[in-house]
Structures are given as C-alpha cells and as structure tokens.
Design goal:
Chains A, B: InterPro entries: Aminotrans_IV, Aminotrans_IV_CS, Aminotransferase-like, B_amino_transII, BCAT-like_C, BCAT-like_N, BCAT_family. 2 copies of one chain form a homodimer. Chain A has about 375 residues and is an alpha+beta fold. The first copy, chain A, is about 25% helix and about 30% strand. In chain A, strand 16 and strand 17 form a beta hairpin. The interface between A and B is large, with 68 and 68 residues. The structure holds pyridoxal-5'-phosphate (PLP) (2 copies).
C-alpha cells in the first residue's frame, strides 16, 4: 500500500505521568493515536495520526452488538543509548491477520501497519519510559462500525493504534504468581475463536478471573473446554513447565492464543539446546510430575509480563508449591535474555528486533549523508 | 429505583422510511434513544431520553478491547385499534440480568428499564409501522466504558436503548428456510457464555454464517462444542422438531440462549395439550427419525422471525426435505397464535402482554377521570 499517513497536530500536549509513581498497566495514554478507515469501495484508507481523543460511533455500530473486533498487544523499548526498539512486530501483525480471518474482518497490509506503528511511536518517543521493566505498550485494534442490527459482518471498520506507557503488568518486581486451575468456566473451545485475539475471549474470562482473585489467586489456569482435563493457558499468558531437564508447553490446538512470547521462548530454548515439547498436557499428569518432584519450574509468557514465574498452583484441593515459591533459574535466564534483547543490552542473534527511527535521527542521518556527499 | 427520566427534545425530526419499500431489519433508527450511566459511586444514574445520535467513547474503553457487553431484543406491536403492545418485556429484562451476571456487569432494575422502554416507545409511537409482520424492534444494550487496558471488569457502564422499525427478519413472507448443520465451527460450550446474550457469541458465529450463505443456506444449525453431536440452536433462533405427535427441542444446557419465544412456544403447546420434550437431541437421531418419516415439522423461534419454518436441513452429505419444503400446520398455528397475541387480535390468555400508554391516551384517561369526578 503506497498510502501516506497524514499528521494532525494537537493544540496542547498532556503532562507525562509522575515518574516517581508506578505506571501500572494501560492507565495513561499518549498525545496521539493512529486511525484508519475501511469501506468496501475504498479498502483501508485515510491513514492519519491525530490527537488522542474520544471516538464517535453510531449506537447501532456492529462493535456494540456483535463484537466484531480484533486487537494486538506489543511494546516499544528504550535502550540505554536512547534507541527505540520493537520486538517482532511482524509476528503481531501476522497474528492480527489470522484474527481478522476468523472474525470476518478484512485483512490489513501488515507492513503498512508496522510503518504506522513506527511513525506513531517516533512522534511519541518522549512518552517511552526509561526505568527497568517499563516500556511503551502499543495497542492496535479494529472494530466493525456499520450502523445496522442484522447479524452480518460489518462493511465498514476502523483501525486504531493507541499507546500507553506501562510498568510491569504484575507490579514492579518479578515475584512468582499464584494460579488456580479453573474447572467450571471455560475460555474457549476448538471450533471457536480461542486462537484469535478478539474481545469476546476476554469478556468470557472475566468471571473466572474475578473468582480467582476472590480466592486469593493472581490468575486462572484454563483447561480445555471439551474434557476439562488438558491445560491450555493462563489469563493473558501462555504457560510452560520445566519437567526435569525438558520444557513442556501445551500444543497450539485452535483454542489457545499463539503467543509471540511463547514462540520466542521456544526458539530461544531450542537455540540453547534445551528440549521443548509442545504437547497435550493433562493437569492430572502435571500434578503427578509435581508429586514425584519432577516439576522444577512453571512460568507464564506474554508481552505484558514477559516471563512470569508461577510459585503456587491450585487444582481442586491439591496445591503445588513450585521451586519453593521462588523464581527458578531457567525462568530468570529467559527473563534476562528476553528483556536484554528487548532493551538492546543483549545481542539480537535471532533477528527479532526492529528499530524505530525518529526524525531527529533521520535528520542526523540525512546530515551525515549530506556531509558524505559533500566530501565526495 | 425512584429515578426520573429526563427528556431532551431534538431540534429536528427525521423523515420516516418510505412505507412502500421493505423495511428490512435494523436499518432505520428513530429520533430518540434512552441512555443511562453507571459508576461505582452513583450506581445507575442520569436516566435520559435524548436525540438518537453518535456516542463518544475513549478509544481505550473496555468494550473495544475486552467486549464487556450484553444486549436484548424485543418488539413493540401496533394493534388495529391503535394500541401499543409489548410481548413479555419482563422475560427479556430477567435474561438481561442473567447475561449481566455472567459478564460481570452490574445488574439493572428490571422494572425501571421496562418503564424506560415504555416511555421511549410512547414518545416514538409514530415510528411503529402498521403493516402485517412489521413492528418496532427494541434493542437495549450495556457496554463497559472504562478507559483502561488491564483485563478487568469495567467500573463504569452505559446502558442504551435504540429503536428500529422492522419488517420480518427473513423477508416479507413466511417461506421455509434452508439450514445447514455446522460441524467445524462452534458457537459456544458449557462453561462459556452461550446462555448469555453477549456480543462475543455473535462475533464467533459470523464465519459459519457467511459459510452457510456461500453454500446457499439461510442459517447454521449449531452442534454442541464438546462432542459435535447434539443439536443446540440456529443462528438467532431456538429450534423445534415435531416428531410424530410430540414436539422436541434441545434442553437448556448452559450453551444455548434461553429464548423468550422458545419459552412461550413451550407454554403455548402445553396449554394446547401437546407433549413437549426438552432433551438432548443428537443430529444422528434426528436424521434417523426423518428417514422413518417421523419428522413432521421443523421450526425456529425468535423475536425477529417469531416462527420460522425450516424446509431443508443439510448435514454432511445428507439432506432432509421437511414437510415437503412447505410451512407445516403446527408451525403456522403457532405463528398465527403468537403474532395474533402480539397484535392484540387474539386474547392474551397467558398474560404475556403489557400495554404502552401514550401521553394522548394518558391525557384522554385523565380527562375521563375528571369527567367521572365531575359527574359524581
Ligand atoms: C489469552 C492470552 N494468551 C497468551 C498471551 C501471550 O501472547 P503474547 O506473548 O503474544 O503477548 C496473551 C497476550 O498477551 C493473551 O491474551
Ligand atoms: C442465539 C440466539 N438464539 C435464540 C434466540 C431467540 O431468542 P428470543 O426468542 O428471546 O428472541 C436469539 C435471539 O433473538 C438468539 O440470538
């Protein structure tokens, strides 16, 4: 798409959040957002960066009634030498198109949306926080906007990208979380939309999530919707188990979200020579492994938390304390490596990083080129 | 709730749709809508009837990301003697609260929302169409509005009610529809949100719906998500089978929407002395019954279509032609009785009807009371 992106300057910029207080997750939003519309006639059009502000929709819009929506979640990281890095944005865009296909939403030009993300992040670079664990969360999403109540795919859509400076999802330190095996509520089932990043999956999960919090847990561990036997994933993370010297994770089966962090952890472990098994894992088998002291570590993976060690696991009346309730060695190594790559401190051997160039840098580069030209 | 409803008059009213053309479903909207907000501190508050128009939301609002939404669908009918009737609005409000409970949405005061619906319909009475099969569709819905990206129930909500003059959902005559047994995609599963009227269920259904249309069918017949064996419901209808002299319908199991029309058909049939069985019905058994000529009629039930006879049923390579592709006697009788009750032509023996009083009538009534008072 040779489309250009127009820029509408805001009259006034917002104050940045107080750096001395925890940022939390998704509470502050930057000065600008990206917006683009879709119609049958024009396809995706009118790409623009505009001041962050309310969007105005007909109350009959598809999104309010039939939930036609997809979203993505990724981050921009600030390096010590002030560069801005994105972690595998191509993977997020690829997944966004997979979600679109499931939700009858017209596909996007992945490269163009990456370009839009970079342009928006470059404009908002002052909003990228600097402290360890902090980053600029990037939330692209698409909503159906047709003002019509028949149950049909919308013929018009809006794609937006909003940015939020965030701390770590689970608070400011990497302390192990407590999770709870949910066996009443179900998140997704084969043939449904579990593998898509779409709002309905999260709506369905709220009840179990609040139940787990009431019971004193941080997150829910979902079981499959058919037999209520096999482990799927956590609230907003995929899940990994270190069993002796191997690492196991549930195989992608249509109802699990294919996490970008999950894929990266698998690649990284394989790169290190660790055996990774993507397989059907029954909760029963897992608890047996734990009884036999073979369950060494458990951790969740996701963009928000990167690696989140699990210290306690509850299933009915059985409780496992994992790695003595502490962060395991492998979890720590994965966390350090991934965040290291994301922050530019560790060499990006697997070619996961894309850099965001700011005008300043572009300007500097141009000047240098000019210089070179002059020198010639 | 002793809350009062404020009224904000529109500067200009819209032209009504051209009466000579089919209205379709959910394409036109009236001049006004009802709106009410929820916050933790104030509960549901600021009930108001305002000009129909765009709603303005923060792009981070829960509805756009985590799909916290419930809705209802009901109708106002115009009788020949110009009265306005609602069909079992209490049932819709009861279901709305069941949906709210599943989606972590604060409950509504059912009687108050019925009052709001009546007030809105009374104001918009000129929009209630008069032709057979036509009515004023009423769509109450609630959306989560918190501008925050953590996966948590919203703390603020908006309830809206919009109105749309509609024809019949399936076109203007009661011609039998063709349905297709879907065995790849799944709508809902036990433990999920299938029994709730929430947007995510419909988002998940679009793919199968468009597939069935491409294959030349009108709607999808969903099977259960666990075994893909048992019949659940149709796209936006519950389903009934007349087997010899009995009527069968899938039992409510947590993944089927408990239709108001479904409940009413069951009560009506029982009132007539017909045996109704709510049970697990395998598609295999159904097709066997059809082979043995025991399957006499098939019909869907829902607010939009009331009764929709099914003429053809396809499951893999098997096809059933039901009642010779025509509308069966029982389907016709149910349709005539239900629409008769709704239009005020048939006596409301089961006490399903609530009348909407307009200012005019209230005025007339008051005058009459005054007269009576004078006479005394
Ligand atoms: C349900 C669910 N599973 C897993 C993940 C992890 O995916 P990713 O690593 O791409 O962030 C997420 C998203 O953050 C999620 O929402
Ligand atoms: C999935 C689904 N099933 C069944 C029905 C029928 O319900 P009701 O009779 O209350 O309209 C509907 C709603 O219209 C529906 O959306």
């Amino acid at each position: 798409m040779g489309q250009s992106i127009t820029f509408h300057k805001a009259d006034k910029l917002k104050p940045k959040p107080d750096g001395s207080k925890p940022l939390g997750f998704g509470k502050f939003f930057t000065d600008y957002m990206f917006e683009m519309d879709y119609s049958m006639e024009e396809g995706w059009h009118d790409a623009r960066i505009v001041p962050y502000g309310p969007i105005s929709l007909d109350p009959a819009a598809t999104i309010f009634h039939y939930g036609q929506e997809v979203f993505e979640g990724m981050k921009a990281y600030r390096t010590e030498d002030k560069r801005i890095l994105l972690f595998r944005p191509d993977k997020n865009m690829e997944r966004m198109n997979q979600s679109c296909a499931r939700l009858n939403i017209p596909e996007i030009d992945e490269q163009f949306v990456i370009k839009a993300i970079k342009q928006l992040v470059a404009i908002e670079e002052k909003w990228i926080p600097n402290e360890p664990g902090q980053s600029l969360y990037i939330r692209p999403f698409i909503i159906g906007t047709d003002p019509a109540l028949g149950v049909h795919p919308s013929s018009t859509y809006k794609l937006l990208i909003i940015l939020s400076p965030v701390g770590s999802y689970f608070g400011d330190s990497m302390s192990p979380v407590k999770i709870y095996v949910e066996d009443e509520y179900v998140r997704a089932v084969k043939g449904g939309v579990g593998y898509a990043k779409t709002s309905g999956n999260y709506a369905a999960s709220l009840k179990a999530q609040t139940k787990s919090e009431e019971l004193g847990f941080d997150q829910v561990l979902w079981l499959d919707g058919v037999e209520h036997k096999y482990i799927e994933e956590v609230g907003s993370m995929n899940i990994f188990f270190k069993i002796d010297d191997e690492v196991w994770t549930p195989a992608l089966n249509g109802s699990i979200l294919p996490g970008v962090t999950r894929a990266s952890v698998i690649e990284l472990l394989q790169h290190w020579g660790v055996t990774v098994k993507e397989k059907k894992i029954s909760v029963n088998k897992l608890f047996k492994k734990a009884e036999k002291q073979q369950l060494k570590e458990v951790f969740g993976t996701g963009t928000a938390a990167v690696i989140s060690p699990v210290g306690f696991l509850k299933w009915n009346d059985k409780v496992i304390k994992v790695a003595n309730g502490k962060t395991g060695k492998l979890s720590q190594k994965l966390y350090d490596t991934l965040t290291g790559i994301q922050n530019g401190k560790i060499k990006d051997e697997l070619h996961w990083i894309q850099e965001v160039k700011t005008d300043k840098q572009e300007g500097a580069k141009e000047k240098e080129e000019e210089k070179t030209a002059t020198v010639e």
